[in-house]
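Incident log entry.

Two folding requests arrived from the same account within the same minute. Monitoring flagged them as a possible duplicate submission, but the sequences differ. Recording both here for audit purposes.

Request one:
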Amino acid sequence: MRNRSPLLVAAGIIQRAGQVLVGQRRRSDRHPFKWEFPGGKVEHGESPQQALVRELREELQIDARIGSELARYEHDYPGGSRVHLLFFAVTEFTGDPSPRVFEQICWVDLHSLTGLDFLEGDIDFVRRLARGDFASRLEA
């Protein structure tokens, strides 16, 4: 099982007025009630940026412009699933985000992110984002 290639996942960091949009997984989802950044699986034939545009439209009903890649790394979840996470700045979007696939969505101050119960694979990125490691690339 460990020899399988990781699932490629693209996540969007959407900022507005110094806050970041996060979503909480539903009770019926894998990892119920954990927080995450919107995004999802990259399908065959898609670039990570194309997948993120599609996922943001499906999950939040917004049309987004994807900016620079902020970080990437692999994470192994207990039970054998492995993900290759790519985090991108979302430079602009149109539409009013709606929680189509989430229990709820919230705009959260960067420094408050670490107080939420995030998916294990996101925790390192959340800490780095909260302490301002990506500030210059989020504004670009």
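Request two (distinct sequence, not a duplicate):
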Amino acid sequence: MGQHGKYRALVGAAALALTCGVVGAALADPCRQALALGLDVSGSVNEREYRLQLDGLAAALDHPDVASAILAMPGTPVRVMVFEWSGPRDQRLLLDWTPVPDSATLAQLTATLRGTTRTPANPSTALGTAIIWGAQKLAQQPDCWKRTLDISGDGKSNTGPRPQDVADQPVLAGITVNALVIGSDTPGGGVRTGEIGDLETYFRSLVIRGPAAFVEVAEDFADYQAAMIRKLLREVEGMALSQTLPDAQ
């Protein structure tokens, strides 16, 4: 390697060390909530519905009320991680753990989501595996005051361990699991109300867990953005208020 090559290598190594140092320092800051968002990209989700999820999540995070709640305590920021899931071996990290102390960071995060394109994955629905995978990622954030896993889904588990099969796994201890249930369109353009109710019951009985865990419902993928706004406000705004209200006398 010539002198020029050595110089470039040294500069690259220094830049990498600096980047790692900055990220490490950011993650060392106090954290009020670690929020892991898992998006269903199984075979029942077509290309249009895929974009409604990714763009809907980005728009929900951009919503003024949601952004205000996320940025309410910049000294103890929310950390966000986003992943996709489908089959037993198909979990794809879209956004690794990112502290969000300011609007610039939030804008970068939403730009990443809007710029994400779909990749091939197993079309099955390994819901139990997705829960454990998300919980393992949350285990990387032990210093956060609260750790929340959000699972979006439009169907029941049909491969791998079922949600009830993993309920006693130690990695789930101390984690709140919330759900966003997505209804399916009928061939004629309506919504299968009965199926939504059945799926909501399934997620409420077998998926959610932990303090104040809940299920939010989107009538279909077109309603995903609005449902995600409601869910994020309930999670993040409630967490901020609980830390800023005076202690009860």
